[in-house]
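FORM 7B: Structural annotation worksheet

SECTION A. Query
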Amino acid sequence: MIIDALISILTGTVKLIFGVFPSLPAMSTSIVSAGDYAVTMISGFVGFFGVIYGTVLLTAIFVMLLALLLFDQIYFSTLWVIKKIPVLNIK
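SECTION B. Predicted structure
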């Protein structure tokens, strides 16, 4: 319930902020076609490895790759949070 309320407050705040701005003009066709091409290539690349490894294993590989790349940031952030808990008395 608390998380649901926080998410709804956050989305309401974002809608309120972006509601003030005027509508954006239409994108040019060259930018739209380049974006479509990039999405098609990435989905084809991921689809190829999805056929080889399967979706569950591909997801696990992707998560582990992100964890390895971001290990230092995750470790120091977790350590900072643990140090802020006064009951644990970790310095």
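SECTION C. Observations
The first helix runs from residue 2 to 20. The chain has one domain: 28-91.

SECTION D. Sign-off
Analyst initials: ____
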